[in-house]
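User: Structure please.
Assistant: Input sequence and predicted structure:
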Amino acid sequence: MIASLIPEFVTQHAPVLQVVIPLMGAALCSMLWRPRLAWGFALLVAWVTFLIAVALLYNVLQTGPISYEIGGWAAPLGIEYRVDALGAFVIFLVASMAAVVTPYARDSVEQELEPNRISLFYTLYLLFIAGMLGILVTGDVFNLFVFLEISSLSVYVLISMGRDRRALTSAFSYLVMGSIGATFIVIGIGLMYAMTGTLNMADLAMRLPAVMDTRTIPVALAFITVGISLKLALFPLHLWLPNAYTFAPSAVSAIVASTSSKVAVYMFLRFFFTIFGVGFAFDVMGLQYVLMPLALIAALATSLVAIFETNVKRLLAYSSLAQIGYIVLGISFGTELGVTAAILHVFNHGLMKGALFLAVGCLVYRIGSVDLHHIRGIGRRMPLTMAAVVAGGLSLIGMPLTVGFISKWYLLLAAVDRGWWPIVIVLLATSLMAMIYIWRIVEAAYFQPLPDEHADVREAPLTLLIPTWILVTANFYFGIDSSFTTDIARRAAESLLGMLP
């Protein structure tokens, strides 16, 4: 039934349309100077992109990986777009978040940005989406780098548009660190090309084993690992992220927190498992002995820092670093259960953090601050907004019936399967820490007196609440019935580990 609703043209060209539509949309959006017109056009592009992502995911699940030859040139001579279960799953996440955040952005962006900058905002917003999706569909490592730079340059400017003056310094810090990361990645790609003469991912996977015993390939792996770790904000290369999330416009914080690090995880998985291969990355290079300690430290240290933060956006930024630690921990296991948990948490964390940042954006819209001191008693004046914060917080803690519980359950199963009980203790301890810093928000909003200056504060408008509650509902829906997401994550993990063709 679903297949009959998908036009044949979209089915045939879905991989390239996934990138071309937001990319061309960004160019056209730059010509629309009226803020509402620019927003309306961006909304149309976001929803068309989302529908294509749904079609692409459905097609991949039904028929297997899709290969699309650009210009009719066969790979590896030509550029290939290739989408498998992992790519389609993350594409669905990115497109879904864009479809939800764009309607939210109308009122939020109009309040936080000057009118003459709104058209530029949506142009860069669509470029960011195009870059993210390009990374996910391309089967060529150099094109992956190009799309990475498109998304990165766009997000630097988007973050700098925050109304706080510190947004500019935060964007500059991100630019410096991101540029270093991109340089490391392109050096690693260059080293692989020098040894194999190809940039196609599938072709690299076939040619690399013949040159694995050289010094060049391990060096290439090291450069790429460091470069992606910077983009991912893996401890201790995370210092750019808290300020970037804190001082960016609310809509930017939501879309970046829910997609950017997830696409960086995809890059990790694609390089480690598809290109270099799990045998070389883990058995030969022992990558797990680097990733696992860093992931555990990230989960513990950043959760501890979050407990003492007074700015809610900054608190959520540090909790994101802890969640990134969970994802990398799952990858470091190198097992089906571990990789399944990592992929599942990519999707689930996108939902929970998107919901939380949208809810926090509602607070910014009404009271102009998210400091714990300024949100005292606000639960009485903004009950729907604070209910969304609490619901997202429960998912972040990992309470049953939420997506956070599903992810952590699979991580616990993966640790128990290997007999690593200290890791189980760390996971439980960090969940307890999450409970503490979420409780600090709840305590301020519900159990402290409302300041006189907020006595007339009203609930956020429906244009902000509806997108927020769509993501809150998704947090519970996929937490109650996780069969759809877990099946895709398991299938993607089996494919990466060579258990499926």
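Residues 336-367 form the longest helix (32 residues).
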